[in-house]
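Exercise 7. Given the components listed, write out the predicted structure of the assembled complex. Treat all entries as one system.
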Amino acid sequence: MNDDRHNEEKLAAWAGQALKQLPARRAPATLASRVLAALAKQPVLPWYRRPWLNWPRHMQLLSFVLFAGIIGAIGWFLLPHADALNLANAKQTLAQSEGVRPVSVAMGVLSTLGNALVLVLGNVKGWVIAAGLGVLAFLYCSCLGLGTACWRLSAGNR
Amino acid sequence: MSDPAQFESFVLAYQDMVFSTAIRLLGNDTEAEDVAQEVFVRAWNHWDSLAGSNTAGGWLKTVARNLCLNHLQRYRARWKMFSDLAREDDEGEARELDFAAPETLDQTLLTADQRELLEETIPKLPKDQRVALVLYHFEDMDYADIAKQLGVSLGKVKTDIFRAREALRKKLQPDRDSVGV
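Answer.
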């Protein structure tokens, strides 16, 4: 057993040393021209029409800051109108956590939605809820099964 | 956006490295060239951050490796259902194969002919063996990472790499086939 292990290590060392001696394979002479031809065929899109990950780095940073600023501003300006928007808990939450106003607004919205859900559930009969959940489960399973079948078919045809 | 002449120089500088990665993993010239082309097209799309970067080579190598593995994975999925049982049966057989005696393995430099022979042999290895061997010896990945990347067991990776090494050894030293010769 030890001999086998020793031999295996020797073989690994030999293979490693031998393979390290191989030079890089020469690319076909046509590769560079193929690449340039493929690039020439690409539609030239301005940076803002490309996926965000392909934007120039400074534009990614700028857009991120801008987006964060917009979200922050929305939260900031919505808060004074919390009462009008029926965000009952927003002010109370704010009192407990001064300085995190957007978070307070979000908590208020969630709280309102939760209250509305409880109210709806309280006024609907139990069997209606059960039937609704059953229909949802059925639709979910159908989508899952249909998706799996489509994937199998497409994978089989490739 | 960028200077096409500068990008062409970039392609010429790195094309051998990218093509080498692709051909060794895929074992097929045409597919390797297609993948290499795709790698450089992606490089162009990231040219703003790649131009003049010290890490451009590493970026290209990683993208080439991932594209090759994705390419192989597409075809692998088709046959996986039928071949899984056979593969599981293969595991653990490595120790039963003949070893060359350590003394018989020449550690000297390879001749040009031997290098050529080795290069010709790699694409002819069975796909699982070739990919695992290349990831280990050329891409410097360890067994666990290879197993994770390929979605196979650690034992299978070790067995595949062992068999691939043994196949290369037999090709280069066919007259030294058994222990103690």
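Discussion: Chain A touches chain B through 40 residues (CB under 8 Å). The two ends of chain A are 46 Å apart (CA to CA).
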